[in-house]
Amino acid sequence: MKIGIIGLPYSGKTTVFNALTGATAKIGGFGAPGGKPHVSVVKVPDMRIEILAKMFEPEKVAYADLTFMDVSLPKGEATEREKDTLQSIKNVDAIAHVIRLFENGKPPTTKSDIQNIDSELMLSDLTVIESRLDKIEKQIRLGKGKGLDDEKRILEKCKACLESENPIRTLHLSEGESKILRGFQLVSSKPMLLILNTGEELIGKEIQDPDIKTYLAQPNTAVFQICGKIEMEIAQLEEKEAHLFLKELGIQEPGLNRLIRASYDLLGLISFFTVGDDEVRAWTTRKGAKAVHAAGVIHSDIEKGFIRAEVIGYEDLIKCGSLTEGRNRGLLRLEGKEYEVRDGDIINFRFNV
Q: What's the pTM?
């Protein structure tokens, strides 16, 4: 999973990036547009992996990965170099927009900050859509427009949405429409996580902002609160010191853990596990995914040659103490392609290539 972190100058975007990843990217330079994004890959914390590792004592333990990209967006018409930055945003699964809620000599300007970033994303998408619609019109005039009706219709629907100053993520799209749009990688269609970067005085307090509540009423949008400055300092500490510092501030857990939960909820993601003497590994898939599609997360060959899935829930396995006992109790069972994977499932896929 990839999350692109964006924000206006002085929002603390890179500070939040450092806080979440433990990185030491330079702050205060306001991210020159078109500059190379900061990238950091972190392990998704999951206590279940640690407990399964103790049970199976494997040679290797592998957590799910989460990639953060700290990206500076171009303003207005992009240069060739700046287009590369936009391309990096197109490849993320979700966008995290950092909003300044701390004082820096000026009061926060939440509403205009949200609108400014959304406008940049929508302008980028409008350019892509208008270009493609022009090409479709030319093909139709040349008598080569067969099979383009659905694409034209959904693009016109998106264009109207953007021209009414609404991002594409606010549209209710069918699976077929979403599939057509997928290839365009439209940035305003990405799920949006609004990161409220607060001052220390707001730690542990819920933000009551009508502009944020209005924003959250949009589909595919969520909010996350963090004091980037303090959590960046904590992220640079040893684990024991960090734990004491968090406790002193009344913060229950690091921002990364909280953001991962918020991101999983926003994207509708769950975790399942594969276990054995060689490896215990966490995998990520969509909520509601069928067993055959979860198999494809591991390898396309497993999906193609899928026969059956041996499944036991995490809690059931912990109660049983072993896969053998789970099988004896009838809790380790065989499921077919249409089985809907649940969060925490331990799965062994049977397949034939």
A: 0.87
